[in-house]
Amino acid sequence: MPVLAALALGLPLSAPAPAQEGPNPGLTVSLSQGLGFDTNADLDPGVEDSRTSALTALGLSYASSTPASRLTLQAGANVEVPFSDDEARVDGPSLSFGYERAVPASSFTASGRFSRTDVSFLRGLGDFLGEDGTIDLPDDFEDLEGEGTRQLGRLDASLSLRDDAPFGATLSAGVQGVDYSDVSAESELLDYTDTNFGAELRFSLTETIDLRAGFTTSTYEEDGSDPETERGVDFQGSIARPDGQYVARLGFDDTDEGLRTSLSFGRDLERPLGAVSGRIGVTRDGTGDLQLTGGVSASRTLPRGTASLALDQSVETLEGDEEELVTTLAARLNQEMTPTTSLSLDALYGASQDTSTDARTRSLELGATVQRQLTRAWNLSLGYRHEREDETGEELAKNDNLFLTLGRQFGGGL
């Protein structure tokens, strides 16, 4: 849903983890109530179905840290109650945890999350925006439409060894399961499980030259279908410079459609007010076609705000056996207008194109939000979002959304 997608981009319904400089351990509670108006909230092609809804969100977050470790726990739920005869929709509960531990020569990280979501809530790109500012489209992005409930569980872990030695290694593993219930009869949504494992060796040849060799394997199993396994190896070299580094990467992936080969070159730059990184390359997909790949990401600290941009195009295997050319763009600007008022602008774009049939799904979101700090704990937000989705063979679907929310966040030490 557009309102919740907007809130995922930093508006007050979210419950951020307490900052490191806060109480330790610390608990933060956020509560928000708002109104939203949509012209086509379900993004049905060629349909205009205006409605007004009441929005309620509750979030809890806990953080505890020591010199060697940090633990975070988060929980939240969002509820939309239309003023019409439509049923209320619930996004939640959502639960997540993160754990980090570092010793002089090694480090360990683990994370997990569980969410139960109405499918109609998952139409906004903001739901798939990662912590690094990039959009990570799910395997079933093209099929997220209609009615039903989506239940997701995910666990990830990573162990890094010999971080301070010329030779080191990193092991990683993850599993994700998605289960659908009460979906529409015409829906193509199916339960699936995705597991992955990776191992990487690191070699420091000199103080400025590093080499890495990695192996990955992933298995995608969809309900009613045989498991699909993909294996890959990649080699990466980097040369450090005072202002950043040069990077080159060569990768091979054994997919269901054939061997996929990719080659790319990149440059990372670090400046006092921000950082810029870019890469460009070419990928020969499993069908033998060449695809241009690459990306650029930039962040900059402004006198009274921040700006960021992340653009990426790559060839990926979705749903176990389908090669897709995936393009994503995320641009954001946060500007302080007065000591108590701020403006946020964002533009999100995601496209997935089948490399063998050229069938494409594209989604675009534009948003603007003004946030006013009423008191130390209370915030008022007024915003507008425009969302549109274009799928091969379907009419253009679009929605305009206006929302007003009043939220409070408070917390303290335990």
Automatic annotation (TrEMBL):
<protein>
    <recommendedName>
        <fullName>Outer membrane beta-barrel protein</fullName>
    </recommendedName>
</protein>
<keyword id="KW-0732">Signal</keyword>
<feature type="signal peptide">
    <location>
        <begin position="1"/>
        <end position="19"/>
    </location>
</feature>
